[in-house]
Amino acid sequence: MKKMLVGAIVAGSLFAGQVIADPAPNTLSRIKAAKVINVAYAPDSLPFSFVGPDKQPAGYSIDLCKRVIARLGQAVGQPGIKVNWLAGDTQARLQMVRSGKADLDCANTTQTLARLENVDFSNLIFVDAGSVIVRAESPISRIADLAGKPVAVLKGTTTEKRLKALLATDLAGMQIVPVNDSQEGLNLLNAGTVVAYAGDRIKLVGAAVQGSNAGKFELLTEELSFEPYAMALPRGDSALRLEVNRALTQVYQSGDIETIFAEWLGKAGRPTGLLAAMYLLNSIPE
User: Are strands 57-58 and 82-87 parallel, antiparallel or unpaired?
Assistant: First the structure.
């Protein structure tokens, strides 16, 4: 009787585990049935992901994403598949992917361990660093000079998290001013409400040189953080991740990445040694 009871408890435990376990997502099947792919992107993250003059998503990450979308369309037997673009900030995009509203995220999203608790990521698509821009006439020349001063930063980003860590250790009295988009941060900096605007280095350069901003700001040489960008994907969907990484590998190995880089980042020069190594290390052999 005791053996039968133990056996029943074990079997019941296994059955209960099967009942409450979340099933792995099958994004490819959903895309095939719907004949549409939902893609989250950033509307204001030049030069990676933004709304272009034709009111369509454009940028380095978007060009990469279009290659991925083409591969996914082939994988589900839907060449030229319809794309539903969903604009949002970092937090909104990650939530879209987590909830299933978006099938993937194509922007300048940093892969972190904390984010991996809720979503998966593709192979890396770029490596950047967090930094700070100040007004051209500003006496601030290093990160340490930010102590006791107001600094704008995009809310919900890894740069904001890094600034909070520095506030607790090295930058006593610094006032962190969260903003919703880069234009808000630049407006506060231009008005003198804050002394600096912190963000990803390449994005800061793009924001500081466009239009009427040209010549108004300077980028500090120091770096705040390391930012490895990747495409956010639904957690646990290995089939989708395989096809996304297959597409990225093809872009890296074919040399197509050079065309994409030149289009959006060529003015900054050739890829750094670190970025060139990233392309190589994120190309998966067949």
Answer: unpaired
Contact 117, 141 (CB under 8 A): no
How is residue 60 written in tokens? 């380095």
Q: What is the DSSP letter of 179?
A: E
- Indicate the angle between helix axes 256-265 and 238-254, nearest 10 degrees: 80
Q: How confident is the model at residue 209 (pLDDT cuts 50, 70, 90)?
A: low
Q: Which two tokens stand for residue 8?
A: 């029943």
133 contacts 122 by C-beta, under 8 angstroms:
no
Taking the C-alpha atoms of residue 32 and residue 258, their distance in angstroms, rounded to an integer, is: 31
The helix (H) or strand (E) run that includes residue 184 is helix 182-191
Domains delineated in the chain: 23-127+229-281 (3.40.190.10), 128-226 (3.40.190.10)
CB 146 within 8 A of CB 132: yes
Q: Which residues pair with 209 in a beta bridge?
A: none
Which residues sit opposite 63 in a β-bridge?
A: none
Tokens of 222: 């120091």
Task: Give Cβ neighbours of residue 189 (< 8 Å, ≥ 6 apart).
Answer: 133, 134, 135, 152, 195, 196, 197, 217
Question: At 1, is the pLDDT very low, low, confident or very high (cuts 50, 70, 90)?
Answer: very low
Cis peptide before 47 (omega within 30 of 0): yes
Structure-token pair, residue 129: 């660093």
What would the pLDDT profile of 250-278 be if each residue is shown by its tens digit? 999 998 999 999 999 887 677 778 888 99
Radius of gyration of the chain (CA): 22
